[in-house]
Amino acid sequence: MAITVAVGAPALACSTGTGRGLGAVPARWVPMGDRARSFVEVVGTVDAVSAARAFADVLVVDDDDSVRASMAAVLESAGLHVVDATDGQSAMDVLEHTRVGVLVLDLLMAPRDGVWLLERLARIPPSPPAVIVVSAFALYDRDALMARFSGLVAHALQKPVAPAVLIDRVCATLGRRSP
Question: In order along the chain (179 residues), what is the average pLDDT of each group of 10 residues?
Fold first, then answer.
């Protein structure tokens, strides 16, 4: 089955060609029927598997449930679409099915830590999502980490991080204004 994907202002619209849209789709997607065709530009067709790949503004990766939940809540309060993962491997699993703009990443996690994930992200062609490291930096030197993963790590923030600072850095990395 082919799905037509179209971009309109301000929403991304998808249709299976039935005029009914896709039904339940992620936030910011709207069904594209005959009435919507007048304000969208069809950008091509993709197979159903590719079209089903979701999008999130931010992937929060932290093994501490309360820290992960609080960072996600702060970012969602700024209007960002957030998904989360508990370690490096679960983040890679999320990235197989979800395109993200920015990863907010803790370093000290088990079983797969943040450095393990950064090493894998550096190998993703053509360009992996930008990373904001939020960590206590107990075992890692911040400057060495920034140098080792330059071009991948946009910011390295010391825990605890103020909510306004987190929102500001994520929005800046996404190229958006902070609310």
Answer: 32 30 33 33 39 80 97 97 97 94 96 95 86 89 92 94 97 89
Q: Are residues 19 and 59 in the same domain?
A: no
Q: Is residue 162 part of a domain?
A: yes
Q: Do 109 and 134 form a contact (C-beta atoms < 8 A)?
A: no
> Could you tell me the CATH number of the domain that includes residue 100?
3.40.50.2300
pTM flag (> 0.85): no
Alpha-carbon span 162 to 98, nearest angstrom: 27
User: Domain check: are 44 and 65 in the same one?
Assistant: no
Point out which residues pair with 6 in neighbouring strands. Answer: 13, 42
CA separation, residue 40 to residues 4, 16, 23, 148 (Å): 11, 15, 18, 42
Is residue 179 assigned to a domain? no
Which residue range(s) make up the domain with 147? 54-174
Of 55, 59, 62, 58, the residue nearest 29 (C-alpha): 55
**Measured CA distances, 142 to 92, 123, 166, 179 (Å):** 23, 21, 17, 28
Number of domains in the chain: 2
Compute φ and ψ for 21, nearest 5 degrees.
80, -170
